[in-house]
Amino acid sequence: MAYWLMKTEPAECSIDDIAGAPDQTMRWDGVRNYQARNFIRTMALGDQIFLYHSSCAHIGIVGIVEVSKSAYPDPCQYDPSSAYFDPKSNAENPRWDAVDVRFIDKFNAVIRLDQLRQLSALAEQPLLRKGNRLSVIPFSAEQWHAVLQLAAAENIIRL
DNA sequence: GCCAACGTTGGC
DNA sequence: GCCAACGTTGGC
After folding, report:
1. How far is the CA of A26 from the C1' of B12 (A)?
2. Which pLDDT band, with edges at 50, 70 and 90, does A50 fall under?
3. What is the band of A42 on the pLDDT scale with cuts at 50, 70, 90?
4. Nucleotide nearest to A130 (CA to C1')
5. What is the pLDDT of residue A88?
6. Whole-number Cα distances in Å, A89 to A33, A50, A63, A78
7. Are A53 and A10 a contacting pair, CB within 8 Å?
8. Does residue A96 come out as left (phi exceeding 0), alpha (psi in the -120 to 50 range) or beta?
9. Is the distance between the Cβ of A117 and the closest atom of strand C smaller than 7 Å?
10. Top CATH class, A3-153
11. What are phi and psi of A100, to 5 degrees?
12. How far apart are CA A109 and CA A87, in angstroms?
């Protein structure tokens, strides 16, 4: 099993939106960056994902979701009415993939950026690098557990 | 709203 | 293949 972090603008799709969706499951579509897409293609059923709210009032990790369906062609790329329509993609050779994610947990507080920066285990984390724009980011098991332990120490979650 | 950083595009 | 221009991301 692998660990990941995915960014979302809560105005578009928040942790509450996922928790409130049918089967608490949503398609994670609209990824239009090749590096992020390549990560999506390596995701496996059951992989654990930190959900991160960006460009909002309370920036940080807000909960956990998991991969409930591994990568498949993102239907939005074929839909001319979609903001994610890609006229250069075609069914024979789909350019973009999606996964399905299922709600696992919402923390009782946001794990803020300044808290994450305190973790030496995250010193090399692309998420914390200035100018980082990657929306799908792998986490090592060590990084994953360091975040969970921080959250437990701050009474954000119970381990 | 500002602006730095980045990925992508397209002319050459 | 280079690289400037552009659009977007994302923290502040």
Report:
1. 45
2. very high
3. very high
4. B5
5. 85
6. 14, 29, 33, 7
7. yes
8. beta
9. no
10. alpha beta
11. -100, 140
12. 41
pTM listed for this prediction: 0.94
Which is nearest to A127 in space by CA: A136, A42, A66? Answer: A136
CB A91 within 8 A of CB A44: no
A132 strand C contact, CB < 7 Å: yes
Gap between the Cα atoms of A101 and A37, Å rounded: 15
Which tokens is A155 given? 């009474």
Nearest nucleotide (C1') to the CA of residue A131? B5
Tell me if A147 sits within 8 A of A50, measured CB to CB. Answer: yes
| A139 C-beta neighbours (distance < 10 Å), count | 21
d(CA A88, CA A82): 14
